[in-house]
Design a protein that fits this description.
With 279 residues, the chain is α+β, with helices and mostly antiparallel strands. The chain has helices at 18-27, 38-52, 85-88, 96-108, 253-261, 274-277, and strands spanning 9-10, 13-14, 29-32, 63-65, 79-83, 114-124, 133-136, 150-156, 167-170, 183-184, 203-204, 214-215, 223-226, 231-234, 243-252.
Length: 279
C-alpha cells in the first residue's frame, strides 16, 4: 500500500529538484516515489479495469494487444492496451494523475507550454511471459515535428516489478545523434518489408552490444518519466497478478497542433499513410 504523499506534494503540485531535472536531461528518465496516495490510485483503478476488460464499446483498434497483431482474439490478449481513455469517457478528464503530472511537466520543460498529448491504459495479464513491450524509442512512432520534446509518465496502478515486467531503459541513449531504425514487429514473418502499421502498431529496434538495460521497479502510486528518445521496453509477466500502468505523455502545444493538422491523434484508428508521415 502506498504511503501518504511526501512534503514534496502540495495539492496538485509535486515538486522536483534541480538534481532530478539534471538527471532527466542527462539520462533520459526519472523515478518519483509516492506521487499519488492510495485513495487517489484507488479512485482511478475501477476505470482502468473497465477499459482493460473490454467493457468500453466502440474502441475498435484502440483496444488491442501491443504484443500481437491487430485482430488477435480478445481472449488471447497478453499485453492489453486501451488508447485515449478520457476521449471515450470524459469523466476521466482532468483527473488527479493528469493534474499532478502536468505540474511536473511544467517543471521539466519551462521553455515550452506542456500539454497532454495522449494517454493509455496498459496491462500485462498474469502468467503471460510473452507480454513483452519491444525495445523502442517513442519518437519512432510519431511524425517528425520541429519540436519533439516529450515527457511520458507511467503511473504504477499496482507494484511494477522485474518479475511482472517493469519498465527497463538504456540510460543516455536519448543523446544518440540519430534515431535508431524502427520496423513493425514481424510476428514470425521474417522481417517482411511489406508489413506496415496497419498490420501491427508495435515497432521494434535492433539492440546494440553496448546496450545495458536498467530496470525501474516502482510501488503502486509511484511514477517513472522518460523522454522521447531513450531506448526502453519491458519484459513479460511471470507472476500470478496483473501488472497495471496508466501512461500519459506531455508535449509542446504547437507540436500537438502540428500532429492534429495532419490527422494524427495517437488513436490506432487514425487513417494515415505511415510511410509518408514518419519520414
Amino acid at each position: 500500500m502506498t504511503n501518504q504523499t511526501t512534503p514534496r506534494r502540495q495539492g496538485d503540485t509535486y515538486h522536483i529538484t534541480p538534481d532530478e531535472i539534471r538527471q532527466y536531461r542527462e539520462q533520459g528518465y526519472l523515478v518519483l516515489e509516492n506521487v499519488l496516495t492510495e485513495e487517489e490510485v484507488g479512485a482511478l483503478e475501477p476505470w482502468f479495469d473497465h477499459f482493460i476488460h473490454g467493457k468500453e464499446p466502440g474502441m475498435e483498434k484502440d483496444f488491442c494487444d501491443m504484443s500481437q497483431p491487430y485482430g488477435t482474439p480478445v481472449e488471447e490478449f497478453q499485453l492489453v492496451n486501451a488508447m485515449l481513455p478520457s476521449t471515450y469517457r470524459p469523466e476521466l478528464k482532468n483527473n488527479i494523475f493528469f493534474r499532478v503530472a502536468q505540474s511536473i511537466a511544467d517543471q521539466l520543460y519551462p521553455e515550452g507550454v506542456a500539454r497532454m498529448d495522449y494517454e493509455q491504459f496498459l496491462a500485462k495479464k498474469p502468467n503471460k511471459t510473452k507480454a513483452e513491450f519491444a525495445m523502442h524509442q517513442d519518437l519512432g512512432y510519431w511524425p517528425k515535428t520541429p519540436n519533439t520534446w516529450t515527457a511520458t509518465f507511467s503511473l504504477a496502478i499496482n507494484d511494477a516489478t522485474i518479475e511482472n515486467g517493469c519498465l527497463q531503459v538504456i540510460p543516455g541513449t536519448n543523446h544518440e545523434p540519430e534515431l535508431r531504425p524502427h520496423r513493425p514487429k514481424d510476428y514470425g514473418h521474417q522481417h517482411d518489408e511489406n508489413m506496415d502499421r496497419s498490420d501491427s502498431h508495435t515497432l521494434v529496434i535492433e539492440s546494440l552490444p553496448t546496450d545495458k538495460p536498467v530496470f525501474l521497479p516502482v510501488k503502486r502510486g509511484s511514477i517513472t518519466i522518460h523522454d522521447e528518445r531513450i531506448v526502453h521496453g519491458s519484459g513479460g509477466n511471470y507472476t500470478t497478478e496483473w501488472r497495471k500502468t496508466y501512461v500519459m505523455a506531455f508535449r509542446d502545444e504547437q507540436t500537438i497542433a502540428a500532429e492534429r493538422a495532419i490527422g494524427f491523434t495517437h488513436s490506432h484508428n487514425d487513417s494515415l499513410d505511415w510511410k509518408e508521415i514518419i519520414q
